[in-house]
Amino acid sequence: MFSSKTYLNRRMHLKRTLKTGLVLMPGNSESPMNYADNWYPFMQDSTFLYYTGINCVSDLWVLIDIDKDRDILFGDDATPEEMVWTGAAEPMVELAEKSGITMVRPLRELETYVTKRRQQGQKIHFLPPYRAALTLQLAELLGMRHSEIATSASVDLIKAVVAQREIKSDEELREIGKAVDTTVAMHTHAIKNSRPGRTELEIAGELQSIAIGAGGNIAFPIILTINGQYLHNHPTQNRLEKGDLVLCDCGAENTMGYTGDMTRTFPAGERFSDLQRNVYDIVLDAHNTAVSGLEPGVMFKDLHLLASTKLVEGLTQIGLMKGNADDAVAAGAHTLFFQCGLGHMMGLDIHDMENLGEQYVGYTPELTKSTEFGLQSLRLGKALQEGFVVTVEPGLYFNPFLIDAWRAEGRFDDFVNYDAVEKMKDFGGIRIEEDFAITASGSKLLGKALAKTPEAIEALKNS
Amino acid sequence: MFSSKTYLNRRMHLKRTLKTGLVLMPGNSESPMNYADNWYPFMQDSTFLYYTGINCVSDLWVLIDIDKDRDILFGDDATPEEMVWTGAAEPMVELAEKSGITMVRPLRELETYVTKRRQQGQKIHFLPPYRAALTLQLAELLGMRHSEIATSASVDLIKAVVAQREIKSDEELREIGKAVDTTVAMHTHAIKNSRPGRTELEIAGELQSIAIGAGGNIAFPIILTINGQYLHNHPTQNRLEKGDLVLCDCGAENTMGYTGDMTRTFPAGERFSDLQRNVYDIVLDAHNTAVSGLEPGVMFKDLHLLASTKLVEGLTQIGLMKGNADDAVAAGAHTLFFQCGLGHMMGLDIHDMENLGEQYVGYTPELTKSTEFGLQSLRLGKALQEGFVVTVEPGLYFNPFLIDAWRAEGRFDDFVNYDAVEKMKDFGGIRIEEDFAITASGSKLLGKALAKTPEAIEALKNS
Prior knowledge:
Largest sheet of chain A: 5 strands, mixed
Number of helices of chain A: 17
Helix content of chain A: 25-40%
Strand content of chain A: 5-15%
CATH architecture of the largest domain in chain A: Alpha-Beta Complex
Radius of gyration of chain A: 24 Å
Cofactor (chains A, B): Mn(2+)
Low-confidence stretches of chain A: none
Distance between the termini of chain A: 38 Å
Oligomer: homodimer
Enzyme class (chains A, B): hydrolase
Keywords (chains A, B): Aminopeptidase, Hydrolase, Manganese, Metal-binding, Protease
Organism (chains A, B): Pricia mediterranea
Number of domains of chain A: 2
Number of strands of chain A: 17
Mean pLDDT of chain A: 97
Shape of chain A: globular
CATH superfamily of the largest domain in chain A: Creatinase/methionine aminopeptidase superfamily
């Protein structure tokens, strides 16, 4: 946890932006797996975490009453009965103190407080919930139908939270760096321990154990697959074979809830094949080009298109595409091989603040999110600012379903050499992803450097 | 998956029991962590799994229309767009076929079907939901308020499902055996790799990697702790020290959703201390006594009380308790050290069918669940039957908060030597847990045997 001053200042800043109203800030509750008391690992709500620092305790609410200039923590101390099951819990008063909160009330008083202030005509701000349990709680608390909750969320609050959370402080960057370091350790293990005969799940399990051992957990489901052509394919009992390419996209969340997110693609055997290396180099070139472009004021959407152009140029050189690269990208032909976005914001969430709406997080009133295939998956389009943390993750994915479907309809015939592409239907996919903080003059790689060129990866693998 | 005949027969049996009505059988949906699309590992609903065998696909419903003798799978095939992200998915028709279901309909037709049959006056059966998302879906589907859903669940359906699921078939016992074997591998790893200097979380992460590598996952949050005095204490960054007792309670869920659940307690260093060994032997004696009593017709509640008496006798021998053991147990004095139950049903859930209500699963109309401290945590009280699978897990827990509280109020002064107990406040806790199938004449240990005596544990640790 940072010092209480950090959280006090963050809430003060929020109050100054919103000027008036009552902000409801619920922490997450436990999430049941197969019955009420068998829980998934607890994950705190990131906005609650940002403004309070309280990570591992469920069922808390903070009310920020701007008009009375009061922050109140609503929560219940553990009963002796609960202490039989889980031991001593930190008293609410001490938890609150660490967040710089002086008022503590039992949960049963939450509804009374909110109802009273509503009846006094105070504006109520809350964020759109992403868990059904909270939708039900909010409906109860506010006397609304559950179907009204999502549309009643406060756009002012969304915008205020995004404006604060998108700029990472130095102390946040240090925490993100720690999460990325653990992520680097996971990838190092994956590269060194992926061998013919082992299963995807065996290796994925080992990566998760590294994240847990570091005191946190995985930040998102691990992608570790010999079928990297599918963007979010999950590990299975597939056994790696010599000649396979392994795509590993994973990240740790650290003890404070900050995340890392990286991808490496490497051979299951000792070396890349010539073809694998050629395609890898195309992705690496696009990656490096995009990274060189990171600086305040640059539109991330432009970097996405620049990287796409680099990919097309490379594919043209190896005979899979043809024609003018800029025209191909303008037409969207590159999306046969690069169906997603160049990257996204990262912080307390792996897609930072995605629950608040991508239009608010990644775009502006002047720049709305596209609905075109490809660009619709670009989560960040707007101009970069110092303090943003972003991923850069171009890739090439040879998806046989898409190739068959588009070839059948003759889509992008002018730009795609389908006969050559046909031979790539069992190639798989390659992605290279790293995390960067935007600095005053450019960008800074977060976490320790990890082997990225084919040569360095082969050297690490065989070390 | 078992053969389609298994699932067909299970549904046929259910129809025969219920005789009439429409059974709504929803599978689980994905469960969001910190935004809608960042999911916890998928866990299928166990009843859905029992009657369909479909484990790893979300957002499915099966309707069992008893009056029309029709089973219908409602679900949607993956769109080409989804296949960009996750690859080829098994078509609904093939999934259904494996379950012995011939009718498949898109999800959008679910509401029409249910509404029509409701309007025709058909009785609708559904189980009480344990996830808020399903409560919302059911409220929508049935035109009810969400607060009415839990109380509108079908008791007939609950009873019918319990009566079927509580008796495990031979093919089920083999699957449970596999899950227990993985659980044994986890414990073997824990015993051999717990050493002074390592953290609880490091070891817990390694255990989870074994469960994942075997193709499933952990069946419940791992308990691995030097604070075994708290029944469900979770791993932390505590470093093990020489002299610590480590309590590890963990279990794997296998690829088909069947579970294992075992506990071992062992020294962090090479050997138990004399005191640790003495207390261990008391728990082991209670464990063995209870196991010897497992057979059809025996009330599990009686075994719980028998084990409790054994614990009191042992504690009396080492000077922590006094007086007549039977009287002490009748008074509840043993609950100072054994605050929970002897065991529970196990199957597709780790506490099998706990979502259906413990009164229905573990008790009978003649034997209601106690509300007394201690017995209120006994999830299974009723008479055993051939085919039941149960855990046996007595323990002794020296909880300093409870000792202080009860000493202060002079509770059970006649049976507890508080001066001697005072010195045990930093002892920790010991639990020994294994899984048994009830056979015609007794019981059978599930899974491979694992070191259980202090000597065997020390030998395994130092092997």
